[in-house]
Amino acid sequence: MTTAGNEFAGRVALVTGAARGQGRTHALAFAERGADLVICDRCSDAPGVGYPLGTEEDLAETARLIRALGRKVIAVTADTADRPALEALVARAEAELGGVDVAVANAGVSAMSLITDHDQAVWDDVVDTNLKGVFNTIAACAPGMARRGYGRIVTVSSMLGRTAVPGQAAYCAAKWGVIGMSKSAASELAPQGVTVNVVAPGNIDTPMVRNDNLYRVVRPDLDEPTWDDVAPVLQQNHAVPIAVLDPFDVTRAVLFLADEASTYITGIVVPVDAGAASRTSA
Ligand SMILES: NC(=O)c1ccc[n+]([C@@H]2O[C@H](COP(=O)([O-])OP(=O)(O)OC[C@H]3O[C@@H](n4cnc5c(N)ncnc54)[C@H](O)[C@@H]3O)[C@@H](O)[C@H]2O)c1
């Protein structure tokens, strides 16, 4: 699916965490394929997260790029942990664009803490965004989709939603939780024509990975680690010898699961992880 068609014409797609990174790539792919967009981002940093998050300028740039493709966009600063804010956004989408057909619960943060000295701020920030935020996105969008008898929900987990590494208790708890929650929602919503599926990315080339904080975590043996020091370590997470995938590699899977034709695919997890899933149990 490399050539943009018009398969989402007449559809409205909501993407959380769309100021930059994978969220922006997903949003622009929907716009290129004919959808109008509803996008949000918290546009502020989080105390437990050791790298800068998206900004108001980033979100405005995503909105500008969507408009430049000739599509409508509602863009708001909203934290996915804030359920009333998401419900207000969906209500606005229903009033102005006719309702949300596709929802991608993409917003996420990464932060590490050892269990022997677990920072409360890390737990709160990671679980609030990566688990509660995904729940809130589903809970805000599902009622309208169920009423209209059509919906495609894609949630974002991680290869760390199916395996675990040291220092990632909060991230793993949230990302494993996304899978269980999504499967439960899928079974509930199946009779209403609403699918719920999960993508589980490997290392993706976004600011979540390309930041000094992660470099120091990955290479604590070096004073000033660089990307060249970190890339060989990250590559070990994958079976295919590549350190990071392009965000659009994940977008391809999101587009497939969001497509009208994916009617009978629900409750599954699609790993886009250069073969990391080949090392986990079924
Ligand atoms: N980059 C990777 O290697 C990788 C791997 C596996 C899974 N993921 C997941 O992919 C998703 C996208 O991450 P990315 O790689 O694009 O990272 P990113 O940091 O580039 O983008 C994430 C965006 O989400 C926004 N955001 C964070 N918390 C939010 C909240 N509570 N409400 C609204 N917006 C919020 C940030 O401001 C940022 O703009 C996340 O769920 C992440 O956990 C990423």
Automatic annotation (TrEMBL):
It comes from Speluncibacter jeojiensis. Keywords: NAD, Oxidoreductase. The keyword Oxidoreductase applies. The keyword Oxidoreductase applies. The lineage of its organism: Bacteria, Bacillati, Actinomycetota, Actinomycetes, Mycobacteriales. It comes from the Bacteria. This is Mycofactocin-coupled SDR family oxidoreductase. It holds the Pfam family adh_short. InterPro entries: NAD(P)-bd_dom_sf, Sc_DH/Rdtase_CS, SDR_fam, SDR_subfam_1. SUPFAM superfamilies: NAD(P)-binding Rossmann-fold domains (SSF51735). GO terms for molecular function: oxidoreductase activity, acting on the CH-OH group of donors, NAD or NADP as acceptor.
